[in-house]
Design goal:
alpha/beta; Rossmann fold; 10 strands; elongated; disordered N terminus
Length: 300
């Protein structure tokens, strides 16, 4: 049949494989390079045979030092500014080189982007042309640290154009996946995107976590349709159904999990689409947990 692609030993031939690869971008602050983000990105890219792009956000208005203090100590001059810029360039170049070396040693396809404009705008734009964005949950792209959820991450999540994988400060390889499900399209969309983008991970131990109101039964919302869907995507998934206030029960249950657990959720924005995953819910997960989060929300 015309147009048919033949498999070689159960796999697509190399000449075709390169045209069906997904594109993952990993965002870095070159002044505070995240080994956790690097390790996570390389693991996922290698696991899924995906092209990895390291996006280095070399924002010109952000420096490794407080410029005001430097000028106050040394005086305002072109030499002072050049000294600060020189130090920052060395740090950023060193970070990009470390990423390049790690990708080369891992044997994955990769590209490096050095984005030299306003960081949040550059990353939003990059996300339009990516299948998945990986970034550290504590990234601020600012001189001063913040506790999660940082302002940078909150703004990014509200306007990103692709799913986001949030990496904790100490990343461990996942051995379990928990899918948060409340019966709304947004939570199903997140599960779909996880299945499509990271299919190799859906064969890990998997649970579907649902919290029903006290006056509801211990059944999944849309029980028949959901289990029919899950059978095709996560055939070995177990189901955990609890009763109570969703936010409390979710946090309580997830705090019992080990740090190798990956959590999948949808609907970051406060939109009324989901009774669970309004903005404050995702914020609480970032604040209370040290687990990696896969977040995908439906913008329709």
């Amino acid at each position: 049949m015309a147009g048919r692609i033949s498999l070689v030993n159960g796999k697509f031939p190399g000449f075709y494989k390169k045209y069906i690869m997904k594109k993952i971008i990993a965002a870095f602050d070159g002044l505070k390079f995240s080994d956790s983000t690097k390790n996570c990105a390389i693991y996922l890219a290698k696991k899924t045979s995906t092209h990895l792009v390291g996006v280095f956000l070399d924002d010109p208005v952000y420096s490794s030092v407080t410029i005001y203090n430097e000028i106050r100590e040394k005086g305002f001059s072109d030499a002072t500014l050049e000294e600060i810029e020189g130090k920052d360039k060395v740090l950023r170049d060193k970070a990009a080189a470390a990423f390049e070396k790690a990708c080369g040693e891992a044997g994955i396809e990769f590209t490096i982007h050095r984005d030299r404009n306003i960081a949040i705008s550059e990353l939003k734009h990059e996300s339009i042309y990516a299948d998945l964005l990986i970034i550290g949950v504590k990234e601020t792209l600012a001189h001063f640290p913040e506790k999660p959820p940082t302002r940078f991450i909150r703004e990014l999540l509200s306007e990103t154009q692709c799913p986001v994988f949030l990496v904790p400060q100490k990343y461990k390889l996942p051995d379990k996946v928990i899918l948060l499900y409340d019966g709304e399209p947004s939570s199903v969309h997140a599960i779909k995107m996880f299945s499509y983008l990271l299919p190799q991970l859906k064969y890990l131990e998997t649970e579907v976590l649902t919290v029903n109101q006290e006056n509801k039964s211990l059944h999944l919302p849309d029980n028949r349709l959901m289990k029919e869907f899950m059978k095709r995507h996560f055939p070995n998934a177990a189901y955990k159904i609890k009763k109570g206030f969703a936010e409390d029960e979710i946090i309580k249950y997830l705090k019992l999990q080990n740090e190798n657990t990956l959590v999948v959720l949808g609907a970051y924005r406060r939109s009324g689409v989901s009774r669970w995953f309004r903005e404050s819910m995702a914020d609480v997960l970032m604040k209370e947990l040290k687990l990696p989060l896969f977040i995908a929300h439906n913008k329709s």
